[in-house]
Amino acid sequence: GGYHMIIEHSAEVRGKTPFYRHLYVQVLAAIAAGILLGHFYPELGTELKPLGDAFIKLVKMIIAPVIFLTVATGIAGMTDLAKVGRVAGKAMIYFLTFSTLALVVGLIVANVVQPGAGMHIDPASLDAKAVASYAAKAHEQSITGFLMNIIPTTLVGAFAEGDILQVLFISVLFGLSLAMVGKKAEPVVDFLQALTLPIFRLVAILMKAAPIGAFGAMAFTIGKYGVASIANLAMLIGTFYLTSFLFVFVVLGAVARYNGFSIVALIRYIKEELLLVLGTSSSEAALPGLMNKMEKAGCKRSVVGLVIPTG
Predict the structure, then answer these.
(1) What is the fold, at CATH topology level, of the domain defined by 2-117+125-310?
(2) In angstroms, what CA-CA distances link 260 with 4, 32, 248, 304, 310?
(3) DSSP secondary-structure letter at 20?
(4) pLDDT in tens, 29-81
(5) What are the CA-CA distances from residue 78 to residues 150, 178, 243, 246 (Å)?
(6) Rounded to an integer, what distance in angstroms lies between the CA atom of residue 279 and that of residue 38?
(7) What are the residue boundaries of the structural domains of the chain, listed by start?
(8) Any stretches that span the bilayer, and where are they (predicted)?
């Protein structure tokens, strides 16, 4: 199944490419170099922020076309349109269930470890305006507002603004329309499928800049906040990683085993994308590459397109 395809693909890539040409090695080296530069030359490090920002902007530029092509062609190729609803329904149940489990794991670990207990933070010293702005944003987030925000004002507007959920909404509707039109829409589907090749090649080209983006982002973070300030938050950071480790290997590990593959094999397969998120502090940076890899691993295009952008 998918597990064996992941292993075979990883082994094939490993066998042909020298270790220093692997993206994850380059990103790791870039993160290490960024930490060193930010520590020893903090002023220079803070000036390198545009490198990280530019890379994230490059990735955001390509996310909308990747989602549109993946979802539209995936749904257009489905003979049973009821499956689209079933996939979306299953994805929603999965997100709700595992978000709740993640919350439970986080609360248990936080109550056991109590990472902020020794930090002696005075609430009066916090920026009242910043706290008020976060509270206002949280208050504004209603289910109706969220659903209304998914519907774009114009068809082009969603792509121009790069709103992922709006692009996904348009992609699903367009894919359903293509599937309903049937044979007469085949030239359009063929064109879109042909267009996926240069778009994903463009993703591969942009990913070559990932080490530069990770280097700039890490140099800025360490240059601005310093290793010492991060060390002071070691307990908090350690608790976060412990919680993530437990959730990934215990909860998601059980799901992976139930579905017949190893969570470790999956992590090894997507290690470049995980390191990219770590280096740039942006999950969007990993989205195009992750969608491409999941499709190569044997996941259906329609499932990849519906699940990953919403997750």
Answers:
(1) Proton glutamate symport protein (1.10.3860)
(2) 10, 35, 16, 18, 24
(3) G
(4) 999 999 999 999 999 999 999 999 999 999 888 999 999 999 898 888 877 77
(5) 24, 10, 39, 37
(6) 13
(7) 2-117+125-310
(8) 23-41, 61-79, 91-113, 164-181, 202-222, 234-258
